[in-house]
Specification:
The structure holds two protein chains of two kinds.
Chain A lengths: L1 H30 L7 H19 L2 H25 L4 H24 L16 E2 L4 H4 L5 H9 L2 E2 H19 L1 H11 L1 H6 L4 H27 L11 H11 L4 H21 L3 E2 L3 E2 L2 H19 L19
Antiparallel strand pairs in A: 1-2, 3-4
Helix pairs in contact in A: 1-6, 1-7, 1-10, 1-11, 1-12, 2-3, 2-4, 2-10, 2-11, 3-4, 3-10, 7-8, 7-10, 7-12, 8-10, 11-12, 11-13, 12-13
Chain B lengths: L6 E10 L2 E11 L4 E5 L6 H8 L7 E6 L2 E3 L4 H6 L2 E4 L11 H6 L8 H19 L14 H14 L4 E5 L7 H16 L3 E6 L2 H7 L2 E6 L2 E7 L5 H9 L17 E11 L5 E11 L2 E6 L6 H8 L7 E6 L2 E4 L7 H6 L2 E4 L3 H5 L6 H4 L18 H14 L16 H13 L5 E5 L7 H16 L3 E5 L3 H7 L2 E6 L2 E7 L4 H8 L16
Parallel strand pairs in B: 3-8, 3-9, 6-7, 7-8, 13-18, 13-19, 16-17, 17-18
Antiparallel strand pairs in B: 1-2, 1-4, 4-5, 9-10, 11-12, 11-14, 14-15, 19-20
Helix pairs in contact in B: 8-17, 14-15
Classes of the chains: A mainly alpha, B alpha/beta.
Amino acid sequence: MFETLILILDSTVRLSTPLLLACLAGLYSERSGVVDIGLEGKMLGAAFGAGAVAYVTANAWLGLLAGIGVSVALGLLHGFASISNRGNQIVSGVAINFLAAGLTALLGQTWFRQGGRTPALPEGGRFRDIVWPYAEQLRDVPVIGPLYSELLSGHNILVYAGFIAVPLTWWVLFRTRFGLRLRAVGENPAAVDTAGISVAWLRYRAVIACGILCGFAGAYLSIAQGAGFGVNMTAGKGFIALAALIFAKWRPASAMFACLLFGFLDAVAIRMQGQEVPGIGEIPVQFFQALPYILTVILLAGFIGKAVPPKAAGIPYLKERS
Amino acid sequence: MNETPAIELRGINKSFGPVHANKDIDLVVKKGSIHGIIGENGAGKSTLMSILYGFYHADDGDILVNGKKVTIADSKAAIGMGIGMVHQHFMLVDNFSVLENIVLGAEDSAMLAGGLDRARIELKRLEEEYELRVDPDALIQDLPVGLQQRVEILKALYRSAEVLILDEPTGVLTPPEADHLFKILEVLKNEGKTILLITHKLREIMAATDSVSVMRRGEMVATRETRNTSMEELAELMVGRSVLLRVDKKPAVAAEPVMQVENLSVTDQRGVQVVKDVSFSVRAGEIVGIAGVSGNGQSELLETLAGIRRATGGTLRINGETIDLGTSTLDAADMRAKSMGHVPEDRHRMGLINSFAEYENSILGYHRDPAYSSGLLMNIAAIKENAVAEIEKYDIRPPNPMLKTASFSGGNQQKIVLAREIERDPDVLLVGQPTRGVDIGAIEFIHSRLVELRDAGKGILLVSVELDEIRALADRILVMFDGRIVGERGANADEGELGLLMAGVEDQAKMSVEGSAR
């Protein structure tokens, strides 16, 4: 029983990581007042960029860099549409999702001729699991052993990056000048503007931060968790990350717990696949896949109170009257 | 004394599209003085100050700070030159603490901690020096507006502002809070700060300033030493005598009252009472004008009578039927059904749906009328026929009922609204700002239509911030100030006298509100 629990928690961590990275990405963007429904697209673009470059160069780090590059570029596109040109942020985000879905499959097929997939990664093209010191020796110690060697040890570096990003984001948001301004511009851009700070530049930096984290999330899927890019491999994770962000009321620590919860549900779903539950029978896997969304709706509807987004989220900032 | 002025503006011009908000403005502000800028709403005061604060850019003209010509590219530059501004709508982040708001944009370094600590100490010093006490850890959203404003002032002082601009600072304050603010300003002045006070309230100018400049319709019309001028002179300068609107009309033949309002009180969404125990009547065949500086309860009065806003108390008698407005649940459609037409003050927000075609807008609010609708389907043919007839009768151009109303000029949009309401033949027409943003030709047309309606024996209640318009059209003039009707005058009332009433100066002469239902 304990063994099973550890296994489920272990896979919870693995499954939560991309959600967490994307969720924190969205947090930067939305805290600055730029609604980002394009997390999914940026992740997908990054996954493809990472997979392709890691295959060609056989270097995971270059792959990660490429993923970040693609994601930041898509983020800047979103910024150009919604910050510089004051376009509708939802429309721009949706466009990015479509663009990424189509472009990755097309370029994948054109370059690699494997139905849109990137070829399996060569040695060195993938982030390997890091085994912590003494993990093997401690494996048989009761309770602490499995916790240490299964749960803490034995993940790839991007997993650790994701969880370190949580306190880091909190620190940036609440302990630095950039964070203060970022939060202010999402609440009342006019206050930031009259304080002599450029609203546009601030929001662009937020969008870039979002792109970087989305790049991590995408690279995780294709060159850390997986061993190559597959068509539409994000499979809605960007949207779940967005749900987690709302669920967490745009706060870093809550975001981590929300993502862990959703990851846990995913892990349970995989575990329950094809298994009979006494008295109920086999639960369809779709039920578990839908659970994050159902949970978000139910909990937001009454249990955790109203999730108030940053006040200026989604509203382009217009200074001059016309 | 030929000290260099703290601020000097030369030939400032600024246009927003077709609106020339500032025309060739010159202004000299002496160091260490409180300089008032007065003018009606829309006279261009806020625009001018926003230019000085670098929020807008002047189309041309020079700005001199301490005698040196400067370019103020943005607010940061203005702050750097020692100019601080307290905006009419506070520029504060509601869910930040006082301290966070104060350091925003003036943090010492990339890390917050040091800056916040220094701000806390500095704030303590400012608090003691200027008697501006406020809890640095309180959230803005928990503070009353008076304290929020104090935070804005502290923000400017923290940035070591030497020149402080206050834009309509008392608009949100209660009278005791306003008095306290003036005391603070006096202290600041004695410490050598220069203060620019923007307001449309004469009393504040007289009470607080050393000198005053008057703006009217984008122009700077006069500058006076406060002690050498009077409220009467300023009121006259503010209102101006330039454009004389003449409307050909015979004296009103007023009959029985068609609409009587008694003890109407209205509270707005902030919980502030905006209409205070107002009573008046409108008779068949007369135009009753409500004059007043905007924001004194006229808009809320009009909206309440139109069924858009709820009253806290009062009765409305229309066509012999008595309605208790305090408990009524009648909405805009019900009021229209009681033969009360409504031309709203803001045609873009309430009068029209600008992305709809002209013919669709021509029946908005009357779309349930059996003539246009069978309940399920609209009778498009009948609606278009009606639209075409109205276009002809009101000379709406271009004469195309299929065009979106957004493509019509302001004057023609207003004619669409007016045609819609007048052609339903209401017994009472409520009209708000009928000629705001309307060209001269259309103004004349709209005015003569209203007079025609009056001569047809209908009652009209006209709300306008244009005093000329009220004087040209109304048979009786009620002046609203601070939610009350503070005076009633006949059609040929003296402008200066009305101006004083509008500015809230006590009317000792002849308070004759009881004469309304004679």
